Amino acid sequence: MARLSYAQAACTALEQAMAADPRVIAMGEDVGRGGIFGQYRGLQQKFGPARVIDTPISESTIMGAAVGMALAGLKPVVEMRVVDFALCAMDEIVNQAAKARYMFGGQGRVGLVARLPGGIWTGSAAQHSQSLEAWFAHIPGLVVVAPGTPQDNHGLLLASIACGDPVIYLEHKEMWGIEGEVGAETVELGKAKRLRSGKDLTLVTWSRTVGMALEAAQRAEALGRSVEVLDLRTIWPWDRDAVLDSARRTGRLLVVHEAVRSAGFGAEIAAEVAETLGVRVKRLGGPRIPVGYSRPLEEEARLTAARILEAITAFQ
């Protein structure tokens, strides 16, 4: 075990994957100097510019090249800097990477990992603070991952590189410096993790909201509410069995995510649980407004442990 930051955990995983398999390459803007969050620090110095490739500022070009590399047998890890910039490469992601395996009868697979840091980024305003996991979960052929701890950013990145299908990898923009114990734990895609047991309510969440959910659950316990917390970890495929099992025991489900509540992925989970079990379900997400640049407006778009606690205590 080592104590690593969220960024260091991912960098260590990528270094491990590149050392084990010469087909793994990294490519994107500024990866040679370590990436804007330090998530590639030292890799070009170790593996050289032919495997850690600095690219022009053209997201569609980067993603298009990565799709071709993957079809040719390489395993590209593609850096888009932030999810907001990946919107310039949506045709390559949605119409090429996601569909190639199906359209060509499995003769070609696009085994790439697209790292698209998401979520609110302090002081970065509406065009740099989006949570778009529901967009990608809607597209057949894509795997969607959202690590919420340094340990999971290590294990899930390794699992994503090994996956063989296109993975949308949504690290949170404000978690890079968060530290935690990181070991060689194997993490399986599509498996949620129960972080806290409870009997009154199931709280399902992912990414940066995990820490807030745990804090809210702890505070709720002092008020007599026992809350079970599940970190979904993989948005698609999501761990339906784990969520249903927990909600069946508690009889209530609250889904919490930083993304806009309207048509967020929490709606899919809530609908599935309501249709299958008939238990009470509620959702908590961001308001349907662009994230403001000024701090007071930005705070209106943020979830907090206090807001999650309020939703827990109001759920009767």
What do you see in this structure?
The chain has helices at residues 6-20, 43-47, 59-71, 90-97, 100-103, 133-137, 150-163, 209-221, 240-250, 265-277, 295-301, 305-314, and strands at residues 2-5, 24-28, 52-54, 75-79, 113-115, 143-145, 167-169, 179-182, 193-196, 201-205, 227-231, 234-236, 252-260, 280-286. α1 (6-20) packs parallel to α7 (150-163). The protein has a seven-stranded mixed sheet with strand order 3-2-4-5-7-6-12, sandwiched between helices. α10 links the parallel β13 (252-260) and β14 (280-286). The protein folds into two domains: 2-182, Rossmann fold; 193-314, Rossmann fold, CATH 3.40.50. Helix content is 37%, strand content 20%. With 316 residues, it is of the alpha/beta class.
Map the helices and strands.
Blueprint: E1 2-5, H1 6-20, E2 24-28, H2 43-47, E3 52-54, H3 59-71, E4 75-79, H4 90-97, H5 100-103, E5 113-115, H6 133-137, E6 143-145, H7 150-163, E7 167-169, E8 179-182, E9 193-196, E10 201-205, H8 209-221, E11 227-231, E12 234-236, H9 240-250, E13 252-260, H10 265-277, E14 280-286, H11 295-301, H12 305-314
Parallel strand pairs: 2-3, 2-4, 4-5, 5-7, 6-7, 10-11, 10-13, 13-14
Antiparallel strand pairs: 1-8, 6-12, 9-11
Helix pairs in contact: 1-7, 3-4, 8-12, 9-10
